[in-house]
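Duplicate of #3305? Posting structure anyway:
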């Protein structure tokens, strides 16, 4: 069992150390709250943003193909722009 949970007169040689249990629990809650926020931001930055980037690139390629099919751009220009898109 965690030393701060419950009365512990050995801790800091005090008779009244009950408040340390509350402080310890608050620190644990604070740690997990920060960890969840960091995890959510990393998820959004790397997973959700990558997914939206793929959708955008697919839309750009689709528009480029339509412009080439309708004759707005030449084959050389199509190849050049497509290579820029990846």
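Output from current build:
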């Amino acid at each position: 069992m965690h030393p701060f949970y419950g009365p512990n007169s050995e801790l800091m040689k005090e008779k009244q150390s009950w408040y340390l249990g509350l402080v310890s629990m608050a620190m644990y809650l604070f740690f997990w709250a920060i960890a969840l926020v960091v995890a959510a931001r990393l998820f959004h930055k790397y997973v959700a943003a990558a997914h939206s980037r793929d959708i955008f690139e697919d839309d750009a390629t689709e528009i480029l193909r339509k412009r080439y099919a309708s004759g707005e751009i030449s084959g050389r220009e199509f190849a050049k722009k497509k290579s820029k898109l990846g």
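Confirmed duplicate; merging threads. The chain has a mean pLDDT of 79. Residues 11-85 form one domain.
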